[in-house]
Amino acid sequence: MSVVTLDSSLPFAPYRELGNEVLRERIAEAKRKLGSSLLILGHHYQQDEVIAHADLTGDSYQLSKLAADSQDCRYIVFCGVHFMAETADILANRPEKLESRGGERVTVVLPDMAAGCSMADMAAIRQVESAWEQLGEVIDTEDLTPVTYINSAASLKAFCGRHGGIVCTSSNAKAVLEWSFRQRRRVFFFPDQHLGRNTSLKMGITNDLMPVWDPHEDELGGNTEEAIQGSRVILWKGHCSVHQMFQAVHVHQFREKIPGIKILVHPECPQEVNDIADISGSTSKIIETVRSAPSGTKWAIGTELHLVNRLKKEHPEQEIHFLSPLVCMCATMYRIDLAHLCWSLENILNGSIVNRIVVKEDIARWSLVALERMLTVR
Ligand code: 13P
Ligand code: SF4
What we know:
By secondary structure, the protein is an alpha/beta fold. The protein has helices spanning 13-16, 20-34, 48-51, 60-69, 82-92, 95-100, 125-136, 154-162, 173-183, 193-202, 225-229, 248-257, 271-274, 283-291, 305-314, 338-350, 361-377, and strands spanning 2-3, 38-43, 56-58, 75-79, 107-109, 144-149, 166-168, 186-190, 212-213, 233-236, 262-265, 279-280, 298-302, 319-322, 352-353. Helix 4 runs parallel beside helix 5 and helix 5 (82-92) crosses helix 17 (361-377). The site of 1,3-dihydroxyacetonephosphate (13P) has 11 residues, from loops.
């Protein structure tokens, strides 16, 4: 198989003209032809029509595990966002896996390269390195564990690998922070301030011990030396633009309008929402919570719109509401559609891979150190 040969790859434009029925048939045909050499992974925020073609679905942690444990496949087509595909490439092609396949790599494809994550983009490696250097002038960084949320570029995961740090997801953040505090006194958490804060608060760490590092401020991320020296957790000033939209007032309005309603949110929501929600957890925890609730339960759910709409359809026996009056959807997850999925699969068949995700060797090696720490912590 060759990698991106512009002359032989099928152009994308004609796929836009195809109707969904045709695309569905062509995707099914490509899947049939590729058989067990293909694994399509789908994140819970994907559109229903895309999820319908996924072999396996999950939250970020589960999808990482699925990529890490994959056996027969030679192609992983990742219906999710860029950092997820990078993580799959690192884990599916780690040295022991490569050896078991006689050196053959698993090719990871992201159907649309524009499927990024705005939160991941809020922390660039040069900003994190500069912050680390500045922190080293006021505290001992040997006593500071860097923790990156999995929603980050591989270079940040590699940074954590090199500096005794670790990766976390929304489903294991508490266990990862507990691990981090067993290693060292303080934590530097990036890029999502909300997941870092919400998790730390549950562990009894108060806001006065959690200064926020603003990468756009020249001096100590906008903090005093005393604030950094007195910190337990230094939070990066990053957020998810989707979950940032949920507000405490939405929770109050639902509780007033529908007595007994339960508020179920993702921990990327701001503290004011997380604090007053009934339950907070990863996308899989949200799904599991709804699945296992008795019929007639009333929910207002604060996470990405496509997942909430799917839960509504799958659970007519329960009353499910979207927590915000606004449309909070992840525009980048939404980039993956049937046309891009079909295009990427037919290019695999055509022998001209498009949108292949390959993490550079040195970055992959150090990212793996931080990812493996995460996989053993749980
Ligand atoms: P989960 O790991 O909970 O699926 O979250 C991923 C994500 O991007 C949430 O915005
Ligand atoms: Fe990133 Fe937010 Fe989209 Fe999740 S929902 S992929 S954090 S932008």
